[in-house]
Design goal:
Elements (H helix, E strand, L loop, with lengths): L1 E2 L7 H9 L11 E2 L6 H12 L3 H12 L12
Parallel strand pairs: 1-2
Helix pairs in contact: 2-3
């Protein structure tokens, strides 16, 4: 599987897509392609390369993006 512009996907989405391949007897590959050179994009893709553990990936995503404040009034339209 080749995923172009991988930085545009959430880490959970990339993890789910990667999990859809490789369930058979043959070896499979998931190739993430990104032209984005920002530190955040690099950190997000590095988390995907570092582990296949969904809990680890979600923890790294939380570290990179931070927590969401659902009670914040500035996010209301």
């Amino acid at each position: 599987m080749i995923i172009a512009s991988a930085e545009r996907f959430g880490l959970s989405q990339l993890h789910q897509l990667r999990g859809r391949i490789g369930r058979g007897k043959l070896q499979s590959f998931c190739i993430l392609i990104s032209d984005n050179q920002t530190q955040e994009a690099k950190a997000r893709l590095a988390a995907m390369v570092a582990s296949g553990d969904g809990f680890y990936i979600s923890e790294e995503d939380l570290k990179i993006r931070g927590r969401v404040n659902f009670s914040a009034t500035d996010s209301m339209v």
